Amino acid sequence: MVSRVTRLFNRSSLALAASLGLTGAFGVTTMSPRSGLTSLHAAQAAGDAARQPAAQAGAFDSARAWEHLRRQVGFGPRPAGSAAINECRRYILDQLKAAGITAAQQTFVAKTPAGEISMTNVVATIPGRRPERIILASHFDTKRATAFRFVGANDGASSTAALLELGRVLKAAGQRELTIELLFLDGEEAVNWDWGVTGVDNTYGSRYYVDAARKAGSLAGIKAMVLLDMIGETNAVFLREGHSTPWLVDIIWGTAKQLGYVSSFPNAVTEVDDDHVAFLRAGVPSADVIDLDYPQWHTADDNLEHVNARSLKIVGDVILASLPAIEKRSLSTAR
Fold this sequence. Notes:
Layout: E1 5-6, H1 11-20, H2 33-36, H3 38-47, H4 62-74, H5 83-98, E2 102-112, E3 115-126, E4 130-139, H6 153-172, E5 178-185, H7 204-216, E6 222-229, E7 240-241, H8 246-258, E8 269-272, H9 276-281, E9 286-290, H10 309-332
Parallel strand pairs: 4-5, 4-6, 6-9, 7-8
Antiparallel strand pairs: 1-8, 2-3, 3-5
């Protein structure tokens, strides 16, 4: 997950909110991830299981997503520039090819506190009847740790696993009106462990992608961007992310309620500086689906024991069911 979680309103959070004009965007009290989610997790564990949609052809397959997660963890720690992340990227490319999805690699050299590091985003395209696109994104790198072995089962692997399965389902479903772009981002995690000392040492892949799209003149073609991050925790609870575009958040959380996942997607708010911020600053409607209350965050315990397939299924169901409304709004409202 993003290495800049806003545990409470801090200086960078307030500055970001002001720069995006989103301060006070929601009339719901902001919650610290540690202060208020224990009861929400308990309610979620007791509530949503009985209301999950029945399995059907073309549905999100949690077993497939879980296998993608397991395979990523099997590569070991996957920080930007490592041999393991190259293996992980090849796996992503192989899975996209197997699903019949065309993918391109966007390689760049990032200037980091550790020197120049080669990084590569994977950009996969499911063509629609129109070239304008909706982006579904995840980062696939893990935090660079030297004191312990960090395999990022939740923080990196979970959202990437869901994105691969979403791609398979969307490709098999046939052509949509808008193009769907699956964006696997490198370099989301900071290279320095103490990220706050060195300035912007994070979100290298998303910042590069946005800058390249701006230079190519393709930025205006992005109608919406939905970021997934840290979605695999057992009994995950996703708060509305306060910097995110309100109409996009409303669609996703409203869809979750319709599907019976209201306790997984409550209306409380938190704030995070994540890969969606580069898109927001560029004027792209964007939303971040992320569970901040994860005690294993950036520890050796972010492993398979603390994630499960059911949480992947919940998010997959919600995103798939949200897309028609996102597409409709994107087509009817100019940015």
